[in-house]
Amino acid sequence: MMSDQDSFIERVLIPHEDIQQKVRELGEQITRDYQGKDLRVVGILRGAFIFMADLIRNIKLPLSVDFMSISSYGGSVESSGVVRILKDLDKSITGVDVLIVEDIVDTGLTLKHLLEVLSTRNPASLRVCALLDKKERRLVPDLKIDYVGFEIPNLFVVGYGLDFAEKYRNYPFIFVLKPEYYQPEFTR
Ligand code: IMP
Ligand code: MG
């Protein structure tokens, strides 16, 4: 999986095989929980797109999908918690069982704002599935994440949809960059 060209990798935190195993388990659990429901899986662009594509193929239900793109003001490493909707959902979620798919919950500020926005639209239910949870960074104490892939330590990670300055989303595993690659001169 790794080659000499991948010299920017400090350490692989979660190998591809572990991700695939976890995604299968999450898919099975969600399949059980949403039997007979009108499930709409909502992916938060862009970080969740790889995870969501794998996850929904492990959910054995006639679900539908929609996407939202939000941006939190601030730099590429720190979130400010002020959420701006760049692309809203295409379809109404009123009366629909909505499952939000996120790449990672860090401070939880983004998710808190998103849940507030979507709950005003009166979905039948509103739950969250996040691949990664950086629990020790949480600033929103009572935030409920219904399905979590992996709890991870306070490290900035990339790969499998997650980026630093829009790069590294295409790598099929979760990894930590070498410190020098988090410098601004490498963001181009
Ligand atoms: P929160 O509002 O602090 O929970 O931030 C959540 C968002 O910050 C995620 O959706 C990511 O876009 C970004 N983020 C937080 N931690 C990481 C990381 O380790 N790698 C890549 N993106 C991250
Ligand atoms: Mg994101």
UniProtKB/TrEMBL annotation:
<keyword id="KW-0460">Magnesium</keyword>
<keyword id="KW-0479">Metal-binding</keyword>
<dbReference type="Pfam" id="PF00156">
    <property type="entry name" value="Pribosyltran"/>
</dbReference>
<keyword id="KW-0547">Nucleotide-binding</keyword>
<keyword id="KW-0808">Transferase</keyword>
<keyword id="KW-0963">Cytoplasm</keyword>
<dbReference type="InterPro" id="IPR050408">
    <property type="entry name" value="HGPRT"/>
</dbReference>
<dbReference type="InterPro" id="IPR005904">
    <property type="entry name" value="Hxn_phspho_trans"/>
</dbReference>
<comment type="similarity">
    <text>Belongs to the purine/pyrimidine phosphoribosyltransferase family.</text>
</comment>
<protein>
    <recommendedName>
        <fullName>Hypoxanthine phosphoribosyltransferase</fullName>
        <ecNumber>2.4.2.8</ecNumber>
    </recommendedName>
</protein>
<dbReference type="InterPro" id="IPR029057">
    <property type="entry name" value="PRTase-like"/>
</dbReference>
<dbReference type="GO" id="GO:0016757">
    <property type="term" value="F:glycosyltransferase activity"/>
</dbReference>
<feature type="domain" description="Phosphoribosyltransferase">
    <location>
        <begin position="17"/>
        <end position="164"/>
    </location>
</feature>
<comment type="pathway">
    <text>Purine metabolism; IMP biosynthesis via salvage pathway; IMP from hypoxanthine: step 1/1.</text>
</comment>
<keyword id="KW-0660">Purine salvage</keyword>
<dbReference type="InterPro" id="IPR000836">
    <property type="entry name" value="PRTase_dom"/>
</dbReference>
<keyword id="KW-0328">Glycosyltransferase</keyword>
